[in-house]
Write a structure and sequence with these properties.
The complex is a heterodimer of chains A (about 180) and B (about 120). Helix content of chain A is about 20%, strand content about 30%. Chain A has helices at about 10-30, 45-55, 110-120, and strands at about 5-10, 35-40, 60-65, 85, 95-105, 125-135, 145-150, 155-160, 175-180. Chain A has a 6-stranded mixed beta sheet with strand order 4-3-2-5-6-7, sandwiched between helices. In chain A, strands 1-9-8 form a 3-stranded antiparallel beta sheet. Classes of the chains: A alpha/beta (about 180), B alpha+beta (about 120).
């Protein structure tokens, strides 16, 4: 499914200003902790890179990738199949303060699944931060969202980690997608 | 009244319920993928009764997600025809305010197809 880049919704400057605020908030809240930022690959990478440099604390970086639903076997019957962790964290998270970083939360299914896995690694605290919240189809209501950058409108988006199978992830701003 | 085929949870290894359409089947697979337990049409809610208490109108939401305490109704009908489902959801909320129920219409399913790659064609 492809589409064109439409109007700019959030400029790079707006995103970076919000990243600075989120970084300062997280630094204040987790001062004295043992912080590990974990990026949800691949959409979370641009936000993760920016946020990690906006937190004025010693911190460790790690990444995790969950098998997307689209990659699951199409012939599997209901009741079969469970998302695999394609790339697990490398660090020992036990007793540490873990913040999962992703670009967007929509239904909450992906975030909840990753958080469940991270929780099994016995961190001292576990929370998530996303740049964009699209709450219109939320199924998992009790996500530990520590911070949200912006509430996004209910339209297809591109840029800053989103859009078109990865081909628009590099755009520095968030755009509305058109022609999809 | 209900197409209930027995409780079925995504964690179980059992044969498929008789889903009404491809969207329901894909939704079940999506929930399985993310480890969300579900039941297919496990409960029928009475929405209206005759004066002597006999059920007059009822509604069996497609899915119950017990871990999330949420009922989910899907519809692939055109927006004009979705109003019947919306009315049932409104009545369910009015009669059972303790029940959490969400209606996913064609636009919602299209959004899921974009974000998760649901295959909605039959």
């Amino acid at each position: 499914m492809t589409g064109s880049v439409g109007p700019l919704l959030l400029s790079a400057a707006q995103l970076q200003a919000r990243v600075a605020e989120l970084g300062a908030d997280i630094a204040r809240e987790l001062a004295g902790g043992d912080l590990v930022l974990v990026a949800a690959l691949k959409a979370g990478v641009p936000f993760f890179a920016d946020l990690s440099r906006a937190i004025d604390l010693p911190l460790a970086l790690d990444t995790i990738e969950l098998e997307p639903f689209a990659a699951a076997a199409p012939g599997a019957a209901a009741g079969q199949g469970r998302a695999r962790v394609l790339k697990d964290v490398d660090l020992d998270l036990a007793g540490r303060d873990v913040v999962l970083v992703d670009c967007i939360v929509d239904t909450g299914l992906t975030l909840a699944c990753i958080l469940r896995h991270l929780a099994s690694l016995a961190p001292r605290s576990l929370a998530a931060v996303v740049m964009l919240d699209r709450p219109y189809r939320r199924l998992v209501a009790d996500l530990p969202l520590r911070h949200v950058g912006f509430v996004a409108p209910d339209v297809p988006l591109a840029g800053y980690g989103l859009g078109d199978g990865g081909r628009l992830h590099h755009l520095p701003g968030v755009h509305v997608r058109s022609n999809i | 009244m209900s197409r209930k085929t027995g409780d079925f949870q995504g964690d179980h290894r059992a044969s498929d319920p008789r889903f009404a359409n491809a969207a329901e089947r894909e939704c079940a697979r999506l929930l399985d993928h993310f480890g969300i337990a579900w039941q297919y049409e496990p409960r029928t809610f009475v929405l209206a009764e005759t004066p002597d208490g006999a059920p007059l109108e009822a509604f069996a939401p497609d899915f119950h997600l017990p871990g999330l305490d949420l009922y989910l109704e899907l519809t692939t009908a055109s927006p004009a025809l979705t109003s019947r489902k919306r009315r049932k959801v409104r009545l369910l909320r009015a009669r059972h305010p303790e029940v959490q129920v969400r209606l996913f219409d064609r636009r919602d399913l299209a959004a899921l197809a974009r974000s998760h790659g649901l295959r909605l064609a039959a």
